[in-house]
Design goal:
This protein is mostly beta strands. The chain has one domain. Helix content is about 10%, strand content about 30%. Strands 3-9-8-7-6 form a 5-stranded mixed beta sheet. A two-stranded antiparallel ribbon has the order 1-2. It has a two-stranded antiparallel sheet with strand order 4-5. Strand 6 and strand 7 form a beta hairpin. The longest helix has 9 residues. The radius of gyration is 14 Å and the shape is globular. The two termini are about 25 Å apart. The relative contact order is 0.18.
Length: about 130
């Protein structure tokens, strides 16, 4: 089950409070902290994929949910990415890397205080997904 979200404008996808640059040639979104969100076959784009972590999904065995409104998700992930140098980095399959970034507050609906940002290739900033983590 995919949740539907408001697309927003060209510089504020999904109603995000921070401006996001859109590259028409590569069809990627880029918020200020240096991450990029590419198109995604299942969700349309990877921002929409991340947005799925705003609502519970009982169809998935494990699925965490951010505790912020839709408009603040990219701001929260950007805040975490600015702390990337403090992350615990874990190699994942297919040349992806999980960056577990401890936040100084609760960021998930089940008291999670860590944000996991999974990117393609170490240091690329190309987001696959992001979600709260215990």
């Amino acid at each position: 089950m995919l949740a539907q979200f408001t697309k927003g404008s060209n510089d504020r996808p999904y109603g995000q409070e921070l401006p996001v640059t859109y590259d028409r040639q590569t069809k990627t979104w880029a918020p200020p902290a240096g991450l990029t969100y590419e198109p995604d076959d299942t969700h349309g784009d990877r921002i929409h994929h991340v947005m799925q972590h705003l609502i519970p999904n009982v169809e998935k065995r494990t699925h965490s949910v951010f505790n912020v409104p839709e408009s603040k998700v990219l701001t929260l992930i950007d805040e975490a990415w600015r702390r990337e140098s403090l992350a615990v980095v874990i190699k994942q399959p297919k040349n992806s890397f999980a960056y577990d970034i401890q936040m100084d507050r609760v960021v998930g609906t089940k008291d999670e205080k860590t944000i996991r940002v999974v990117i393609e290739g170490k240091g690329s900033g190309n987001v696959i997904t992001s979600f709260p983590l215990k």
